[in-house]
Specification:
The complex is a heterodimer. Chain A has one helix and nine strands, in the order ββββββββαβ. Chain A is mainly beta. Chain A has a five-stranded mixed beta sheet with strand order 1-9-8-3-4, with no helix packed on it.
Chain lengths: ~110, ~120
């Protein structure tokens, strides 16, 4: 799997949009970008994933650059409950690699300030 | 999203005893489940892959005789920590692979906090 790089921590004001960047410059054509978050003392929560196109769901939006070497997770209106560690993971699910467990890096600790 | 449950959420046991943790996929079938461990202030580390109807595969450094995994059905995997010791105290988290509806995603359980005295 391609390596990802994320900032160690970020602050965001409550009610504002939180933009979390992720670099994955060695991503290959079959690899998807997945985002998970882990709130303290809980299991990771799936947020969103994408391949090439931008994606949006009820939780967040995922913006992937045209060259796919980086992406941004956007939480449009951050609340205090969004304080968590956010993990960007690149995975090749659809070409036989989906049977493997996920490799978690250190992620970004997002702190929402009141 | 898909729901994965774990039981118990918290367990305290004496050194030398065995502890069983259950992981269930509630609204989908999972031929593959995964077990992770997380120590304080660290990231999740994959321990093993649980395959329905076959033996689990373990990551390097994880003792298969100590961490017994059984994946008896498409919705249940169990992890048994045998002869637990204080150094086994950790946060154990399972995930289940959902391949239905064109989606291939892992969903995680809420975790089990194990404390060995």
């Amino acid at each position: 799997d391609a390596k990802t790089t994320q900032p160690t921590s970020m602050d965001c004001a409550e009610g504002r949009a939180a933009n979390l960047p992720c670099n994955h410059s060695t991503i290959s054509g079959n690899e998807y970008v997945y985002w998970y978050r882990q709130i303290h003392s809980q299991g990771p929560q799936y947020i969103i994933h994408g391949l090439k196109n931008n994606e949006t769901n009820e939780m967040a939006s995922l913006i992937i650059t045209e060259d796919r070497k980086s992406s941004t997770l956007i939480l449009p209106h951050a609340t205090l409950r969004d304080t968590a560690v956010y993990y960007c993971i690149v995975r090749d699910w659809y070409s036989g690699g989906g049977a493997d467990g996920l490799t978690f890096g250190k992620g970004t600790h997002l702190i929402i300030q009141p | 999203g898909a729901v994965v449950s774990q039981h118990p959420s918290r367990v305290i046991c004496k050194s030398g005893t065995s502890v069983k943790i259950e992981c269930r996929s509630l609204d989908f079938q999972a031929t593959t489940m995964f077990w992770y461990r997380q120590f304080p202030k660290q990231s999740l580390m994959l321990m093993a892959t649980s395959n329905e109807g076959s033996k689990a595969t373990y990551e390097q450094g994880v003792e298969k005789d100590k961490f017994l995994i059984n994946h008896a059905s498409l919705t249940l995997s169990t992890l048994t920590v045998t002869s637990a010791h204080p150094e086994d105290s950790s946060f154990y988290i399972c995930s289940a692979r959902d391949r239905g509806g064109g989606v291939d995603t892992q969903y995680f359980g809420p975790g089990t906090r194990l404390t060995v005295l």
